[in-house]
Design brief:
The chain is an alpha/beta fold. It is built from 11 helices and 14 strands. It has 2 domains: about 150 residues, VC0802-like; about 160 residues, Rossmann fold, CATH 3.40.50.150. The chain binds S-adenosylmethionine.
Length: about 375
């Protein structure tokens, strides 16, 4: 099968998590930079990456990469790419773009040049003046960085965080891809107790359950490249089949999710049911200060209120103090908190063992990591 280069885009700060996922899937020639990881594979790998990547935003197919400081160079190099092999006569091609530290700084002008070059190339194959754009969607991106242009096609369609299980609104939900990254950045494994005591719509607990059961997060959704003629239809069927056969229905998971808000718990339960993991998670409405830790060597991963977007500052600060008190009672527990509140460590009562800068949407946050004692070897 034809070799292709894919680019998995990520939220800044999550590149290493996505790289590890890509390595674990056995992909080759992995490289990357801020906001993305690239690797080589074939069309089966395209389907596999879309279905299984947990923390990446999108999987783009790299069509070409070249230097351009003039519109002529942008046009000629874009025209030289194999658009006539990729986009059919009725293909709905949409051009997006971005430009950072490049001579060609006007994004609309670059988009227009790229569109003209693609149209001209397609006209070498199809005798047509205006393309109807009534067929499958081909979203082309021209990304300029320091005068290097990377032309990609978005194979995913809507971002991979749209798994399809989340319904109903809670305040400040975490993106599914970020929730999966927080779990993957922790030392949790399916043998250990998992707790999210401020679970909101349940995203972190649900992503932990998907990981624990080895359920590919993209199994319930469609991807843009499934409608493309040049990608064999069988690869999607085969990769879906493999993903289903890899699901581990047998391991009993000990995942607990609670929240002060009854409505959030109702929504979380429905979301877990939609994701097919309601049997793995015990949900409970309970305020944090009434919570007791059950068992040893548990892992808490949580996204408490920050007071920036929700919650009163006094309540939030009291909650952080309560969190420090509870986890200081049992040294075997590990606890992980994502928050933008810069006073978190002081309120919690201890400096984190590790801190990682992350963007939760546009909000600059830190991921505070407190490591408990290691569980005894079995
Ligand atoms: C930022 S939201 C969590 C969003 C969640 N990660 C999601 O994806 O939907 C914070 C949650 O903490 C809950 N919360 C606030 N104070 C609490 C407390 N004292 N005890 C337990 N939960 C609390 C809120 O009800 C809210 O659902």
């Amino acid at each position: 099968m034809k070799k292709i280069k894919l680019q998995a885009t990520t939220t800044f700060g999550l590149e290493a998590v996505v790289k590890r996922e890509i390595q674990n899937m056995g992909f080759e020639n992995i490289s990357g930079s801020d906001g993305y990881v690239e690797f080589e594979t074939d069309y089966s790998g395209m389907a596999k990456a879309n279905l299984r990547l947990r923390s990446a935003d999108k999987v783009l197919m790299v069509i070409g990469r070249f230097k351009a400081v003039t519109f002529e160079e942008l046009f000629d190099n874009t025209f030289a790419l194999e658009w006539d092999e990729l986009i059919p006569k009725n293909g709905n091609f949409i051009i997006t773009g971005k430009s950072i530290k490049s001579h060609l700084s006007s994004v609309p002008a670059c988009q227009s040049i790229v569109e003209k070059a693609i149209v001209k190339k397609l006209q070498t194959k199809y005798d047509i003046r205006r393309f109807p754009k009534t067929g499958a969607e081909y979203t082309v991106q021209a990304a300029l960085l320091k005068d290097t242009v990377t032309i990609t096609l978005n194979t995913s369609g809507p971002s991979l965080h749209k798994r399809g299980y989340r319904h109903g609104q809670v305040i400040a939900p975490l993106k599914e891809t970020m929730a999966a990254a927080l779990v993957q950045l922790s030392y949790w494994n399916k043998e250990r107790i998992f707790l999210d005591p401020c679970c909101g719509s349940g995203t972190i607990a649900i992503e932990a359950a998907l990981i624990g059961r080895n359920i590919a997060p993209g199994l319930s959704r469609k991807f843009a490249a499934e409608s493309w003629d040049f990608v064999p239809k069988e690869v999607w069927q085969e990769e879906r089949k493999k993903a289903y056969s890899d699901i581990d229905y047998d391991t009993e998971l000990k995942i607990y999710a609670s929240d002060i808000n009854a409505h959030a718990i109702e929504i979380a339960k429905v979301n877990a049911e939609n994701a097919g993991v309601d049997d793995c998670i015990a949900f409970k409405q309970i305020p944090f200060n009434k919570l007791e830790l059950m068992g040893d060597y548990g892992v808490c991963v949580t996204n408490p209120p920050y007071a920036e977007r929700m919650g009163e500052l006094d309540d939030v600060e009291r909650l952080y103090r309560d969190m420090g008190k509870l986890f200081s009672k049992n040294k075997t527990w590990s606890a992980y908190f994502i928050t933008s509140h810069e006073g978190f460590e002081k309120l919690y009562g201890r400096k984190a063992d590790r801190k990682r800068k992350l963007f939760n949407g546009n909000v600059k946050t830190d991921y505070y990591q407190y490591f408990g004692e290691r569980p005894p070897k079995k």
